[in-house]
Write a structure and sequence with these properties.
Layout: H1 2-8, E1 18-20, H2 26-35, E2 39-47, E3 50-56, E4 63-68, H3 72-75, E5 84-87, H4 91-100, E6 109-111, E7 114-120, E8 126-131
Parallel strand pairs: 1-4, 5-8
Antiparallel strand pairs: 2-3, 3-4, 6-7, 7-8
């Protein structure tokens, strides 16, 4: 009986693939994310007053979305998303690449061997570059390599 209940409680695989990022000016945000090296996947106007723009960070399976006329998504306060993490293999390389593209990136901070550097879009939505040291990366985690153990 307990076995049957456990089977009924199994949750199927779910993948986070789209995160809303509220902005006040769609074209300004689009220019910023292009400058940051994100890949434009969608820029469409499916109806009058509605615009949907989607960008994907390099190497990511998750996309961000912003635009106009999308109900609760566009009703969010611009700049209210904080601490979106971009996990990188080498934070120095990632930070340098963004800075070469003209993106202001904060200094690297080291918190118990996990390194962070932050940047924000023009509305103040904040992003964190995050690097785990190779020796603490686990199987299934980004940038894990068996030979780092």
């Amino acid at each position: 009986m307990a076995e049957n209940n456990k089977a009924n409680m199994t949750v199927p695989e779910m993948k986070l693939e789209l995160v809303p990022v509220p902005v006040s000016d769609v074209d300004r945000a689009k220019a910023f994310y292009e400058k940051a090296g994100f890949t434009l996947g969608v820029d469409t106007r499916p109806s009058e007053g509605m615009r949907v723009v989607q960008f994907t960070p390099p190497g990511s399976a998750c996309t961000i979305v912003f635009g106009t006329g999308m109900g609760e998504i566009t009703a969010m306060k611009p700049g209210s998303v904080k601490g979106l993490h971009l996990v990188v293999d080498n934070i120095d390389t990632a930070r340098s690449a963004l800075m070469k593209r003209g993106i202001e990136v904060g200094e690297i901070t080291d918190f118990k061997s996990v390194k962070y550097a932050s940047f924000s879009d023009p509305d103040g939505n904040s992003w964190l570059l995050q690097e785990f040291p190779p020796e603490v990366r686990q199987p299934g985690q980004s940038f894990f390599k068996e030979d780092d153990k």
